[in-house]
Amino acid sequence: MAKYLVTGAAGFIGFHLSKRLLEEGHDVTGIDNINDYYDTNLKLARLDILKQFGNFAFYKRDIANLHDMEYVFSRQSQSPFDAVVNLAAQPGVRYSLKNPHSYISSNIVGFTNVLECCRYNSVKHLVFASSSSIYGINEKIPFSVSDNVDHPVSLYGASKKANELMAHVYAHLYGLPCTGLRFFTVYGPWGRPDMAYFSFTKAILEERPIDVFNFGKMKRDFTYIDDIIEGIVRVIRKVPQPDPHWNRYQPDPGSSYAPYKLYNIGNNNPIELIRFIELLETCLGKKAKKNMLPMQEGDVPVTYADVDDLITDIGFKPSTSVEDGVRKFVTWYKEYFMLSGYPCR
User: Fold this and answer.
1) How many angstroms separate the CA atoms of 140 and 309, rounded?
2) For a designed S-S bond to 171, which of 66, 106, 260, 261 qualifies (C-beta 3.0 to 4.6 A apart)?
3) pLDDT of 197-208, one tens digit each?
4) Is 135 a catalytic residue?
């Protein structure tokens, strides 16, 4: 069995990934600073589940603190981690308009610390979270990892592009195998309360109006959490190799002469936000009160993942329908918040 370090282990994706790896019998070390960006009770509830596994070790530490990171790695000095999965980050497009410094601290300084610790501790593979936000104002769809992404429209997207560039440098200079995963609108049980689908659900049940930007016409490639986790697990096991066909005169941003690779993980089937809201209404048995608003600054009209490389290299394509995904989320929501009387039809 392998030994993994998962940063952001109390977060949405980090929790699900850690649980999957633990269930497979691997040793998992988790790091999370349990910040209050959203309800810490949800993070602690996730951790309570992970702590039931005897093969799980947890450190309440901050990746932006180099001493914290060095301490965690030092605990494994006799037996280095086989892989590190960096899921710790300051997420959110809109929040970056209000608190830009938190993105620099976590996503830039923190990621530098992750890279340095991987470099000095013989880590065999670094897998890190990127984002569909990196595509910015690109209008060519579906979005491909081979596309140019030099025009982000949010600091969050810019920080994720910086992560990809930083990882490539470490792959080039130190031979650290790095794989970046661009996630597309991840949703599902144990999700983040700051995400629209989660806050919409709460507001609909409380009969409060919801803000629907771009009049509900923006399209998102909603990707169910189980598909995201399956993709990550498969990617972890495929350590990137230098691409012998990489052309310096026509460089492909998605691969490299160094041990470096990028993948989109998305449902490859974008739907309008208003359709997603209708599915929530059906499952909750209640109509939403909608404030129809124009596009918000920093947002993009559509996200759409080209997953051809994921299919070719990893043999996997996300397949959970949004209808099934929303039903599973609402079922979890009712159970977690001990609600009843809202059958998902």
Assistant:
1) 17
2) 260
3) 999 999 999 999
4) no
